[in-house]
Each structure stands twice: as C-alpha cells, then as structure tokens.
Structures
1.
Amino acid sequence: MRFSQYLLPTLRETPAEAEVVSHKLMLRAGLIRKAAAGIYTFLPLGYRVVKKIIRIVEEEMDRAGGQEVLMPIVQPAQIWQESGRWDVYGEEMFRLKDRHGRDFCLGPTHEEMITTVVKNEVRSYRDLPLLIYQIQNKYRDEIRPRFGVMRAREFIMKDLYSFDIDEEGMNRSYQLMYDAYTRVFRRCGLKFRAVEADTGAIGGDVSHEFVVLAETGEAVILYCEKCGYAANVEKAEAGLPVPEDAAPGEPEKVSTPGYTTIPEVAAFLSVPPEKLIKTLFYTVNDELVAVLLRGDDEVNEVKLGNHFNAPYYLAGPEDVKERLGLTVGYVGPVGLPSGVKLRILADRRVERMVNAVCGANEEGYHLLNVNPGRDFTVDTYLDLRLARAGDACRHCGETLVETRGIEVGHIFKLGTKYSSALQATFLDERGEEKPMVMGCYGIGVTRIVAAAIEQNFDEDGIKWPLPLAPFQVLVLPVTQEQMAEAEKIYEELTAAGVETLLDDREERAGVKFKDADLIGIPLRITVGPKGLATGEVEVKNRMTGEQWRWPLAEVVAKVREYLEEEGSSFK
Ligand code: ATP
Ligand code: MG
C-alpha cells in the first residue's frame, strides 16, 4: 500500500476527548473515527488490525470444532421474554419497535437466539455436542461508554455457545474453549492471564476471564506466583489468617467521644484497625441486614450482591437511627436492639477475631475484649471481603500479588439456565427428554485492538505485536531522491507476500519518521542517502528499538527470515 493514496489521517495533536493512551493513539494513528459516543468507524489501517484478530479467532475456534454462523443483530423481544431477561436487562439494551409496534432489540448477546435456533433443529443426543459461533457487532447502551473502542456501545464480539448432553460434556467443551482462548491470545502476541471470575448477571457458576496485562486496565487481578491461583478481585478469595493465640478478656466499655471512624477509634485506643469490627447495615427487600467485617477490610459488593441475590443498598445514618435507634459510628454486634428483625452476616475473618473492639451501641462508647460466639452470634459466616495484595493464597499460603489488566475474553459454564427457560431439550439414549447443558464464550475483538496498544506503546506511538500489526514492514525513503530505490524494495517485498506500506508522500523526513513511530509498524526500512552510498538500508525494530544495516540485495531475504523467526514465537 502507498501512503499517499491511503486513507490514513494521522494527527499531531492529541484529541481532547481521549482519556487513555490507546484511545489517543487510535485517533492519532488514524485507526478510528468517532460517529457518536461509543460508536466508531474503523478506518483502513484500524480495520486491518481487526481482521488480523478475526482470522486468528476463527482459526482457533474452527480448530476446537466450532462451526461459524451469522445470527441476526435485530432480535424479537419474545425470546428474551421467554428467558426472563427482557425485563431484567435494563437500560443497557437498545430496544426498538417495528412498524407494527412489535418489540425488538439490538443483540447485546445471543444466548436466547442461539438456544432458539438449536432447539428447533436438534432432537437427539446423537446431534450433540455442538459448538456454534459467530463474529459480529454487539450493541450495549453502556452507562459510561469510554476509552474509545474499549467500552463502546457498538463493538465486535466473537461469541460461541456450546451444547452438550450432560455436565461432563459441558466441562469438556469448557476446557476446549479455555485452551482455544489461551492459543488465541498467545497468537495475538499479548501478555495475558486467565483468571477466575464472577459469573454476574449471565448466570451459571464457573467462569474465567482472559485479561491482557496492562497497568492502565480496569480489571484488578490477584494471583499467586507459587501455585498459579489467579482471580479477578471481585471473585478472589484469600486464605484465612491464623487466629491470635490469646485468652479472651472481659468485655469493657470505654468512652470514645467523637471518635467514630475505624482509623480514629484505632488511633484513640492504640489498637491496629484489624482489631476492630466494622458494622455496616444494608437494606435488602425492605429487610435490614448487618454486615460485619474486620476493621482493615472492605466489603466486596459483588460477593454481597451474589449472596443477597436481590437489589440492596447501604442504609444511611438516618435509616439506622430510625429503624434501630442507633448512631452510626458507635454501632456493633453486641447487644443490638431486640424486637427488630435483623439478620447478621459476617466475613469469615471476624469469626477468628480475639478480644476485638466494636461500637457499644451507645453514643460515645466502644467495647473492648469482644469475642465472637461468646458475646454475639452471627447468622451466616461467609467470604465477604475484598481480597488484596499481601493476603495469603487460599491454596498454598504464598502471598498474593496484584496486577491490572483489560478483560478481553470471558468464558462461562451456563448449565441449563437458558435451555430450561427456552425448552431446548433433546432425547437421550433411553428416549428421555433432557435440557441441553450449555456454555458461552465471548471475545471482545475490537477491545483487543485497544488492549494491545495499552500493553505496547511508548511516548512516540504504538508498538504493534507482529501478529496484529496492520502492515509488517514500512519502507521510508528519506528524500524524493531515494524514491526509486524505495519503490523497488516495496515492489519486491509485496511480491514476496510481505505486507508492506511505502511512505511515498512528499513530506519532510521528520514528519515521516514521526508518523512511522506513531503507527508502529514492526519493521521500518529507511532508505537514505548515506546508506545507499554503501548499498545498505537502515532497519529499525519498533518493538525492541534494535537497529540493523542490511545490504540492499538481501532485504527481502532478511525480512522473510525475521518474519519467520519472530512469527514462530507466536505459534
Ligand atoms: P465488562 O465487564 O467489561 O462490561 P462483560 O462482562 O459485560 O464485560 P461479556 O458479556 O462477557 O462482557 O462480553 C464478552 C467480551 O466482550 C468481554 O470479555 C469484552 O472483551 C467484550 N466487551 C464487553 N462489553 C464491551 C464493550 N462495551 N465494548 C467493547 N468490548 C466489550
Ligand atoms: Mg458489561
């Protein structure tokens, strides 16, 4: 491709709308242009990257036994009503009506659609398992579309759905997909991790996220370097601390006038925050629930939400005053008012506390030497805290480490949630009717473009991993005088099947070098007066910064050698 004829509008200035580096660089390098919030056009250079990803994804899905289909984007409300998600999906769903007033949506995902297709076509256990996938636009009216194509309202997803006769089959399909995803992201040339994840609204019980590691990522991951345990912070569960070896003391009420927060009380009483019990109140289905945590812990809202399985909110000070007659800041689990229906949940760490400190349920006072079991009872102990770096791994005890990343893939075991709701059944060997056992598996194709940049950039621009690069080689003549030689190299490389971009613009060398760094093509071949005098070109590796001088006659052979060697590390 010749730069002079290519729709590749690079920008010097950073567009004000972009907050994160990948978004800035995608606009500056002429990969995308915005149509509306969270809705983008991929320009030619950007779309080449998208297609590279699509090709890798298709190859690996096919290799795992996937069959590619294309389902409609516009979906009838009826199938969503049958699954029960029409009403719960909420504002994230783009909804529309046809001329007859019938309800439709733009597919945010396709469980309902594929389950309907499969149920109509499959009767017997002999037809299963099936792995069906598509690569297509998805529509989600995100509350905060941001970071360019990273959190868009229209984006490309690969979604695959597995249908099996039983749980064992589903587990096999899940493992196939886990392995296929591992190959996809390795072949994309990305550093990533598979982490245990919360299953969220989609249902099901086991899930993993594939996260591209990048400091700027939204996803927080905790992992263990020793045993390999890794989980999204929403899901992560740490090991329990060893209980303190101390004899329980007698409860004692102490005056703590004006000290209401954990740090204030801890400092005033000269105890570490982990000796305090934090008491929070939540309202769930109009019922009040007390949640106890160690003073140094924070509540994990996802775990709490999963336990409640209903909308809930933190009760404010007025609420607590009105319903319990207590003043926030001095509350605790000992001697809570009787006569008010109150469920008490506590994080597992609370159970192990010895001689703890908590509010005395009397304004201006706290209690010392409080011991769970003896001084108060709890309805349910469960894991409710946010795990954090420094915690012990629950499997091997090693210290957990934190890292950040971008979720690019998510796989779920769904079980029979959708097949039961939509009556997707089959006849087993004995002629018995059974619901199919499903899994679903998504890859954010367009999000990968942004994630690859977040992981690979410097102050000058993008550094494409070779497998995703829009072109493999950029040929850059320093002045018009080297154009003929540059053209020749370009023609030869192109003829040899190398994806090459020739910067044939009548621009100053400085402009061309700046654009070369910005668009980040892996190999830059500079054809300059000095080199040509000795029959050489200068070659720069954008990713590593390495520079070489290659004899003109060997350019094609050297490029091929490089591509083969470098390419083989992504197999
Ligand atoms: P998130 O937690 O980021 O909102 P999700 O759990 O809603 O993601 P899934 O429904 O599992 O995402 O979708 C599968 C994949 O699609 C995600 O792993 C992600 O890579 C991609 N994806 C999801 N939402 C968006 C979006 N708004 N823009 C771009 N890609 C997205
Ligand atoms: Mg989402």
2.
Amino acid sequence: MVNKKYIYDFSEGDAGMKMLLGGKGANLAQMWKIGLPVPPGFIITTEACKSYWEEGADLLDQIWDGVIAAVGRVEENTGKQFGGTDNPLLVSVRSGAPVSMPGMMDTILNLGLNDETVGALAKASGDVRFAYDSYRRFIQMFSDVVLEVSVDLFEEKLAELREELGVKFDHQIPADSLKKLVGDYLAIVEGAGKTFPMNPTDQLRLAIDAVFRSWNTPRANTYRKIHGISGDLGTAVNVVAMVFGNLGDDCCTGVCFTRSPSNGENALYGEFLVNAQGEDVVAGIRTPRPIAEMKDAMPGVYGEFARIAELLEKHYKDMQDIEFTVERGKLYILQTRNGKRTAAASVKVAMDMLREGLIDERTVVTRVAPEQVEQLLHPQIDPTAKYDILAKGLAASPGAAVGRVVFDADDAVSMAKDGTPIILVRPETTPDDIHGLYAAKGVLTCHGGMTSHAAVVARGMGKPCVSGVESIKIDVAAGKFVVDGTAVRKGDYISLDGTFGNVILGKLALVEPTFSDDFKAILDMADKVAAMGVWANADTPLDARTAREFGARGIGLCRTEHMFMATDRLPSMQQMVIASTKEQRVEALSRLESMQRDDFIGIFEAMDGLPVTIRLLDPPLHEFLPKIPEFEKELSTLDPNSPQAESIRATMARAVELHEANPMLGFRGCRLGMVFPEIYEMQIRAIITAACEVTHKGVNAIPEIMMPLVGTREEMKRLREMTDGIASEIIKNEKVELHYQVGTMIELPRAALVADEIAEFAEFFSFGTNDLTQTTFGYSRDDAENKFLGVYVDNGILPKNPFEELDRDGVGGLMKIAAEKGRSVRNEISLGICGEHGGNPSSVAFCHALGLNYVSCSPFRVPVARLSAAHAALGLLE
Ligand code: PEP
Ligand code: MG
C-alpha cells in the first residue's frame, strides 16, 4: 500500500509545486486554478518516478488503483469513457520534469484508440478519416517511444502510400487508405516482434512506464550532464484528455510566444496550422502560418487567445510560450511556460517589463543569463558587404555565421575538430542531431518554422539559424543541395544571416555587434547587486578604453611583455635579451624605458581614477628571439663571412644558451627580476614616472605593481624593497601625491601554501589561475588541451577542462588556503583573479564564494563577468 500521495488532479496543484508536479504539470494546474480552458487531467508526481527507480516496476502496481480512479474523474469531467465504444475518451501522456529536458520522452497522443474505439471515435466525431488518421498516428508514436520500433518503418510506409495515391500531403490521404495503413502499421509492429496492446488500460500503463524509463536513457543523462541538472529530480507524468485540432477547418493547433523570442518585441509571436495536431507544428512537415493570420481566419478565438496570453503573462510576470488547440471553435490551452529567448530578447523583454511596472530591477538582473551574454556580442554580416541572396527562409535565431556545408551531424563533428567552421544543413533536425548543432557555427533547414527543433535549439545555443527555406532541395545521400539550379556541395562555403533569414553563397565578412543602452542599464543594475567588482586584462590604451566601455572598474592585469612584442620595440628587446654584459643590457633597457613610460601614460589616462595593475616581465626571455630554424634560414641567404652573418650567429648562440627543457617552469617570472634586477628596475621607474607625469596633469593614477610567479617570502621581500626604494625617490623628486601598491600573483602551489609569509610584503594577491592550474595539475598549459585533455573530458576522467572552468577542489582549494593565510596577516588584503577563469560564470561564482574583491578578464568578457557576479550574489549561480 502507498501512503504517499502520488497522483494529483489539476484542481489540486499550482505553479509553486514544480518540484513535485514538474514544470508542465504545475503550470497546467495553475491555469486550471485561474479558470482558463484547460482540458481535464491529472499528474503522477516526480516522487513516483523516484520510487519507480528505487523500487522497480512494482510501484506501478501500488499506484494503479489511484490511476484508474483519476481516469474515472477525467471521464466524469468530459462525459466520455476510456475504452468506451460509444464516446471514447482519448488521453495524451507526456513527461514533465521540474526543469525543461528535451532529452526525455515527450508525448504520446490519442492513447485509448484500438480497433474498436476507432470506430466509436469515427461515429462520435462524424469523421471516419479523422478517426483513422488519429489511430495511425497513435500506433506510430506508441510503437516508437514505448515499443521501440523504428519510426522510419512507418514513415517509409506512409511515403509509399502518398506516392501510390499521387498526393503531396498526409491530409490528402482518404479514409479508406488510412484504414488500410492502420493494418500495415500493426503488421510492422508485429514484424518487429512486438505486440501492440489493444486494451487502453494496458496502453496507459505501458506509456507511464515508458515516461519513467525515459528519465534514465543515455540521451537524457547526457543532456543533464551538459546542463548540470541533477539526476535526482525525476519526471512527472501528465495524463490529459485529448482535444483535437484536426477535426476540420474550424480547428487548429499552434504555439505562440507572448512576445518575440527573437528580438523581444511586445507582440504575439507564433504559428498555427488549421486542421492539424500539435506535432505537425513542431515537426516541420507542413510550414505553419503566422499567428497574426489567425485574426482573419478565426477572429473570435483569436480575441480570446490574445486575452488569455496577456493574462498569463501578467500572472507569471514573464514572457510565456503557450501551446493551444482549437477544437470546433473552442479554444484550449495545453501548456504554458516561460519562453526561451535570445539574449537580445531577454534584454528587451526584461527592460520593457520594468518600464511596464511588472518587475523590479533585481528581477531584471535575473532575467539575462550570463551564458546568454555572448550572444549580444555576436557577429553580424558586415553592413557594407555586397551580396546576392541565394535563398530566403525564416529568421529563426539571430547572428551571422560563415562555414562549410555539411549534411550530417556526425560529419559536422568530425569536420569541426580541426577548427573548420561548419554550417549544418538538414531537411529538419531532431534531438539526435544535437551533437552536430553543438559543433556547427550555424544551422539551415528547409522545413519547419520558428518553433521547430532546429530553431529552438539554435536560439538556446546562441547560434544563427535559418529555417523553413523551402526553395532548397536537399539530397543528403548525394551530399548537395540545389536551389534555382545552383548546386551547393558538401564542403562549399555559405554564409547565414539568422537575423534576416538569408542564405548567401560563399564567405561574407562579419562584424562584431555593439552594446545596446538597455543592456548597459541591466549591467549597471547587476553591479548594484554584485559583491565583487569586475576588472579587465588590458595591455594597451585601446584595450583599456574598450574595457572601460564594457564597464570594467579597473585593470587587473597589464602584461608588459605584450608591449615589447610590438615591431618598433622588438629589436631593442632582442638586444636586451642577447646582451652579454650588464652595461649592454642597461643600454638596451634605457631605449625601452621611454617607450614603456609612454605606454603607461596612455593606460593611466584611459583609466583615470581606477586602479591599474601592471605586471612586471614574466615570460622566458627566449620567447623574444626567433626560433633556431629561422636563424638558420636567414643565415643560408647570407655570405658566411659578412658582419651580418656574424651578428646572427652571435644571437643564435645566445638563443641556444637560453634554451630550456621546461621553459614554463624555468627562468621566467620574478626569477628574471632576481637575476637581472635592472629589467625590473627599469619597469618600476617607467610605471612610477608615468604615474607622476599624469598626476601633474590632473589625472588620478592608481598604479598597482604586480610580481609574477613569486614562490617564496624572500623573493617578495626583495621585490617590495626594490619597488619602494625606486618609487619613493621618484615621488619625492616629482613632489606629487601618489599612492601605489605592491603585490603579487599567486600562481604556484607553494605561493598559496606560504601566502601568510608572502602577505607580509604583498599588499594584494591576484590569482593567476592559468599557471596555478598548470602547476597544480602538472599539466602543461601549452600542450595538455591538444594532447590528452579532450580524451580526459570525453571519458569522464575529468568533468571539465580545468583551463576553462576552475577546478574547485584542487586549484580552488589552494586559492582558499591562500586567501585565508593572506587575510590572517593582512586583514584588508585585496584579493582578485586574473587567469582566464575570471570570465567563466561558474568560476566567477566560486570567486564570489571565496569573497574575492574582484575578477579580471578580457574586455569582451567583462559583461559576462558582471552579470555572473550579480547572479552569484543572488544565489542563482553556484
Ligand atoms: C595566469 O597565469 O593565470 C596569468 C594570468 O598569467 P599568464 O597567463 O600571463 O601567465
Ligand atoms: Mg601566469
């Protein structure tokens, strides 16, 4: 006997019960509660699914009486009988987890039909064709998802029949042929060694069992893994009385967003199909009509729908994605949920709703996911480009992409491996193509509308998609598509414009997008919520200005070596590197000093009033010299006795001397400043002199001088003394009020472990998690990702690439030790991060938990980090 309540009628639930009733069920119950036209039904809870997996199929025995009783109540509500030979009740069975999960079994429609009830349905509806059409759909769906008979077998049969009859669409197939098709379908099931259950109660039980089973399929597990969804949630099962959108021309079915999911415009945005069932809209077999046309086709129903759409949006205070069906002029709402949308739409909808007084600022911040922000920074086709449009389709997901045409998801994955940009071209996509969509830059389909699988998934991924390009004829087997006589073959380049629905032959130039005022406003609201600041890694005045435009509140890392790589500086830098005496080195350095000072002046000016963290020279010196084969190549073109050849041989000899077996663990970082103090002395002089100079001009310079790769107390002590010695003298001479700080990167495990000793001399720490990941794991940051990390992640040896997402246990553990030890001797020590992880949402959330003062990342990731910091503070990102 079961004590727990596992079954809820719609009248017993509400939207707050998502964990128990699943998203779909809780919303159906809520709509029932507020009096909307929802067909009667009930929900088997997620708890039942969990017990099913714990106790096995027995659970169904335990709850079965309850299911039958609930069906009885639906019978009462509808006045129909389940399995009845007079007025049969048909139901849909749908899964519905607490979070949306496309990896699971979705829907079985028309359950309850068999050789007898089909006749009763024909009689009750007065439409024999409709009854057999419903039956053949049911057999196919049930056999596919419950009995696991390949759907292709049914589709082939159907295609044969269309050909035989000489018709293009399924709805042109007459009743008699459908009746025969039902027989053929049942024979297919039998031929596959399966038994199709004729008893409706058996059908229902098997379907519920299939929903529970679908929770643990490899596809669902993969989806959960990719999206970080817990495997413990379970799915609910929704059993709902069927209503029919395919009973004639006063019937339709459709899906509609209350605002545009593409750009957020406040107008109904959807599609409907007259005389059709729900699957026809999303399957993309017939291209649906825009919802606006429903106004003329069914004016009364359209008015009611528009009223309900507004009511639902006000009720949920968010844009809704609604499924509906009209049966003989009567509207039914079958589902509502918060609509998935592009980043641009998220921004516009949230800001419009703020202006409409529907939501407050904090809610606005929650409405844009950090992962979506990338999309706002998506490329578009260069507006000055001239081109002919090869074909036009629906603007299903915005942004532009250029790539090579591929017709198959597996091919897309293998061709994209070496970085080749891919455009996946399919008649339509299904969840089985998901890996191809991940690998591709953009998607093109010839069937399906804005709500087709390809469109929805591409929008979610922020990739451009053009769907419903009906003029394209795809021949997957031949590896080509043809449009107006032009053949485009596998491997050819095309450009896609998902914002306008255009397909263009060849490669077009793309441009980076701009930053809208609405989005800027949301980021300002995010800053008010966030506990951490967001700074940027910027090496030039231009980078600094970009960073500031994106809202960076400081520079967390200025890598000075990048300045030395510039063509006008490299020769002096090379002379410094090859110098064999201190005098020669000092001479080369003095030439670099004025250039370096000018760089810093530009950056201080750009960052007036904000901290600028400048890191002294870090890379191994040989990085500034050509590689040995390059020397050899140059020598081969010269007279060996010429002075030029002599000089090249000398430089080459120095390059050989500087060669190290493990340069990343070698003579780099502050070790350079220990051995050749004149290098660091020059840089410190340049920084402080530049800061004094701009201070004289009224600029508020806030220099923070940062030492790389410090591992011991003694290194930090000497570097601090060196800096203070030089700085105090310049500041005294310049007679300015200048505050500067001296600190260090924490990028070696030893530095983290002795952070208290280092903090005696360091006023700030910045976690260099690129090197810290390298040195903690012992993985070369230059090689690991190409050599073995892919295999590690694919095989689950590591959950994620640790150079992308911070390894919380290992690298994060060291950061925690360092933060605690640093604070133990210097309570107010400023803590930040400047490794690549500073722009990764999950890693930002970890930094928030550690109580860091700021994260620093590349300028283009600043908006992502600002939103991540706010979401972490709101507990939305952990
Ligand atoms: C780091 O190591 O994390 C860092 C920011 O420095 P770099 O990448 O320049 O070594
Ligand atoms: Mg480093």
3.
Amino acid sequence: MVAHVGTPTPAPVPVDLPANAVELRGLTKIYQPTGKAGPKHALKGLDLAIPRGSLFGLLGPNGAGKSTLINILAGLVNKTGGTATIWGHEVTEHPRRARASIGVVPQELNMDPFFTPREMLELQAGLYGVPKRERRTDELLDAVGLADKADAHARSLSGGMKRRLMVAKAMVHTPPVLILDEPTAGVDVELRRQLWEYVRTLNRAGTTVLLTTHYLKEAEELCDTIAIINHGQVVACEPTATLLRRVDAKAMCFTLERDLTAPPPALEGFSVELPEPRRLVVRYQPSRQRAGAILSALAAAGIGIIDVTTEESDLEDIFLQLTGGAHDNTGVVHAA
Ligand code: ADP
Ligand code: MG
C-alpha cells in the first residue's frame, strides 16, 4: 500500500482481536504412569487469562506444572479436561489454528547440527507455509544478533546463540503469541540481557509474550504481569508492581556499639538474628508492627546503635510465602 503525502493512513483497526491472547479454564492434566507410580495430577482445574499485549511471567517451583501447561498450548501434551484457548482458538477444537497463533521456544534445545541458521529458518518457514516473498529470514537473524552466523553450521554456535536461534525459529510465521519455556536457563548474564531486550522489542511491537522462568529477578524486571503456580494451581496472578506491594515483610539491620551474646529479650515478638556479635537483624511486618517500636525497645535496653539499614522484600519473598518456601516440591529457589 502506498501512503499519500499529507494524508496519514491510519493502521487498519482489527475488529475482532481477543482481549486475552491465552485463556485457560479448568485446565486439568493427569499423567497416566506406565510403571508402579499412581496417576500424576499435574494441573488441577487451572484458570488463567493472559491479556493481549502483555509480557507475562509464569513462575513456580520445579514440578509446579509450568511445562505441562506450555506443552498443552504447543499441542505436545493432550489435556485431560478444561479448555485452553489461544488467540480465540481452542487447542482441541481448532488445533491447527491454535498452533499457527503461537511460536514456542521449548525448554530443551533440539536442533540439527548440519543446518545453518539460515537453512533452519527457511525450513521452519516452509513447514508453516510462509510464502517465499513473505519470509523474514535475514530480518530475524539480524534481530537476534546472528546475521554474521547466518551460514555457519549450527554445531559451531554457542549455547546462547542456539537459544537465540530458537527464538528466531519460533517467530518465522510472525505469531501473535510467543511462548518461551525457561528461555535463559544456562545463558550467561550478557546474553541474557540481549535476549531480554529482544523479547521487550517484540512485545513493544505487539507480540504477547508468555515466559516461564526460574529466575525471579528476570520475571521482576521483564514481566508486566506475573502468575505463580504451585501444585498445578494458580496461587497468584497480578501486575508485577501489585504483587511486589503484597509482601508484608521488612528488615532493619543494626550495627551495634558493643558485642551482644544473644538477641536482646526486649525484642520479643520480632524475628531477630544476630549474625555477628555487633550485627543485629530484626524482621517485622509493616502492616502490624512499627519500626519505631524496634528503636524504642533497643533504646530502653540500653543498646547503642552506630548505624542502621533497611531491606525491602522482593519477589523471592512473595514466592516463598505463596509456595511454602524451600520445603515444598522444589527443594531450591534460584534467584539470579
Ligand atoms: P515444571 O515445568 O513446573 O517443572 P512439569 O509440568 O514439568 O513442571 O511437571 C509437573 C508434574 O507433572 C511433575 O510432578 C512432573 O513430575 C509430572 N510430569 C511431567 N511430565 C510427566 C510425564 N510425561 N509423565 C508423568 N508425569 C509427568
Ligand atoms: Mg519445566
């Protein structure tokens, strides 16, 4: 289309874009085991709406059901019950339309070492029936910083390059929804930043992004909305800022004038630690406890203070609060 000078042509306004890019209702998955183990209830009637245009983070401990959810969207796992709708297409009713609406970067990298990045993208575009003249191979390679590797063998690419190539591969058919399962696992810090920047760029250009991650800092910095799932159910789903405000925990860290051998009795009712004889950490809940009460108690006990710092809580605290902490089904919470 040719735009005429002086007469701005507004972008066509799509009439029936869905409000939610992805909508899950009562989504259930029960894996039927082959061995002695009983059936595994991986998703338990999960409801989730991912607004169109969002950069959405799906968090949860290992085994929470994140990959199961994504694999159902990708058409790799059959759901047991409920509905999963992508861009208005229910995955069981309209599997092909649903699949055409998403690009998926799986948790495991699988690529043929004998193809070059260019060949791989061309092949993928062919699979999705993208006509030659509409292919964006060079543009995509450029966007993920692999233009100079276009004709190199995939086996000569580093782990981070392969991950970025997978993102480009997921975008060949320009899907409105991009799904990344643990995109930065094993990617070093600098490349992680590059990948984030590209994901942000795609999002700003209108792509709805759903990503799962173990790195809570990643979700905190990148995502506008975060859902936390645990044991196959949603335990929180809120804008990132709202979620962060939910943490009702702060700490004051004191440097003391003299050594203490035990936490002072005056601070009964607070959670107190004495990591060093002159270092006292007092945790409190701002909603029901006042910082002033801590200071008065210390003054009344005759404990001199040289310095004090405070610590705000972050996503990790909320995550631990909502998922039952390190004693749940994960064992470990990684913070980047
Ligand atoms: P996450 O990606 O959040 O770590 P998964 O979706 O991989 O979680 O797993 C959710 C639960 O389902 C776990 O208890 C896992 O052991 C189980 N599970 C995943 N895949 C299978 C499978 N193919 N067969 C049986 N159980 C499975
Ligand atoms: Mg997983």
